[in-house]
Amino acid sequence: MTFRAGWNFLMTPGPTNIPDRVLRAMARPALEYAGPDFMELSIGVHEDLKRIFQTTAEVFIYSANGHGAWEAALCNTLSPGDTVLVPETGQFSNSWSLMAESLGIISQYMPADWRHGVDPAVVEETLRADTGHKIKAVLMVHTDTATAITSDVAAVRKAIDAASHPALFMVDTIASLVTTDYRMDEWGVDVTIAACQKGLMMAPGLSFTAASDKAREVGKSTTMPRNYWNWQTRRGAVHYTWYCGTGPVNSIFGLRESLDMIFEETLLGAQARHQRLADAVRAAVGAWDSAGSFELNALVSDQRANGVTTILIDEAMKVSELHTLCRDKFNVSLGYGLGKLKGKCFRIGHMGHVNEPMVLGALGSVEAAFAMLGIKHGKGGVQAAVDSLAQAC
Ligand SMILES: *Cc1c(COP(=O)(O)O)cnc(C)c1O
Predict the structure, then answer these.
(1) Are residues 42 and 62 in the same domain?
(2) Per-residue pLDDT for 393 more than 90?
(3) Which is nearest to 129 in space by CA: 146, 108, 148?
(4) What is the 72 CA–ligand 1 centroid distance (Å)?
(5) Residue 281 lies in a domain
(6) Which of 28, 70, 112, 157 is the most buried (most CB within 10 A)?
(7) Is residue 197 scored above 90 in pLDDT?
(8) Residue-level pLDDT at 316
(9) Domain for residue 3, yes or no?
């Protein structure tokens, strides 16, 4: 491995920086998987996740990444041959839709331009046209990490209600949770999908579904084969069944610590911090663009994500050189363009365990890399970020 001095600034939108407190919390011997100590810890974590999702719905924890929770949401509520409506938001709606199809579900994909959030009017119109109620669920990505766009969950709920449509409403909050306001119950979400390695600051490997009573009831009569993911069998007096086997004990130690950190900061405090940092990054992009060619991918300002910024660039800029230089020279890891944005953008993740100096350091490194690579840009990106932070703090 190449030697790189100092801390790695992991400015990718997942995985994210893991706090020392969380790492240390995990460095302990495991516990008996069905003993009273683990049960108490595990039940507490399940309950506290409900506070993060703002729900009273049942939460299920998987030893899996976000893709696992996607699959859990689909196979617990749908049958092969069912139709789902998937509004396109970016690479992550694409991938979730393809996963649904691979399970024998028909995806009615609602195409969009990757520059705007979900249009609730189109959702409403599509559901109104579905008079036979063939559509069984609406699958929405809250923050699409490829486009750095956050869509309005409450507005999509209103659209479903306005069409008087019984479809389940499922929301992927993997990139939005903790960085952005999210209220599962108030917004009438039936299934929330989340993972631990983004806003939750944890080592990758855990994911979550929260399932409303309606979703669990519907799921009792669906026929998708499922076993490990099955909500119906993941409860009971024997704690072993909550995890369909041995619980990921040390990951739960880590998650306990990260939840404690979030509650110490408060959820509102964490959201405000993410907003501040996102504004600072966007201010820098504005300065770079003043004498260069940089554009925020998200066209609508109040749809710009708190946890990640996607910056469109001139294709001649050789974005891969920018990545390599930032990583090798400055120990700063940036996000690549995904899907159809590959080679056309870079992304700066600012989610999870991140603060003002980390963002300023990353922006300064990017600016130095621009200069070294001869990439035309307006100077003063860091200064613009400093000004933005000074105003917001
Ligand atoms: C990261 C991410 C995923 C995928 O999560 P994995 O843990 O990599 O499987 C899905 N959806 C969104 C919105 C994401 O940001």
Answers:
(1) yes
(2) no
(3) 108
(4) 14
(5) yes
(6) 70
(7) yes
(8) 76
(9) no
- The CA-to-CA distance between both ends of the chain, in Å, stands at 39
Q: What is the pLDDT of residues 127-169, one digit of tens each?
A: 999 999 999 999 999 999 999 999 999 999 999 999 999 999 9
Q: Quote the number of domains for the chain.
A: 2
Taking 90 as the threshold, does the pLDDT of residue 289 lie above it? Answer: yes
**Is the model's pTM score more than 0.90?**
yes
Tell me the pLDDT tens digit for each residue of 89-103. 999 999 999 999 999
Look up the domain containing 189 and give its range.
Answer: 20-263
Alpha helices in the chain, H assignment, sequence order:
20-26, 36-53, 66-77, 91-102, 120-129, 153-162, 213-219, 249-265, 267-289, 319-330, 356-373, 381-392
> Do 21 and 257 meet the contact criterion of CB atoms below 8 Å apart?
yes
**Is the C-beta atom of 326 inside 6 A of ligand 1?**
no
> Which segments of 173-232 are extended strands (E)?
191-195, 207-211
Calculate how far, in angstroms, residue 251's C-alpha sits from the geometric centre of ligand 1. 18
Are 224 and 355 in the same domain? no
Ligand 1: centre distance to CA 268 (Å): 23
CA angle in degrees (0–180, nearest 5) for 229-235-238: 115
User: What is the reported pLDDT for 351?
Assistant: 98
State in Å: Cα 194 to ligand 1 middle: 8
What is the reported pLDDT for 356?
A: 98
Find the length of the chain.
Answer: 393
One domain, residues 324 and 183: no
Q: Label residues 114-147 b or e (16+ Cβ within 10 Å = b).
A: bbebbbbeebbebbeebeeeebbbbbbbbbbbbb
Which value, in Å, is the radius of gyration of the alpha carbons in the chain? Answer: 21
CA distances to 261, 324, 331, 382, 393 from 202, rounded to whole Å, are 11, 26, 21, 29, 26
Percent of the chain at pLDDT above 70?
A: 100
Cβ neighbours of residue 264 under 8 Å, at least 6 residues apart?
none
Residue after which a domain boundary falls, among 263, 279, 294: 263
2 domain-assigned: no
pLDDT of residue 237: 87
Whether pLDDT at 258 is above 80:
yes
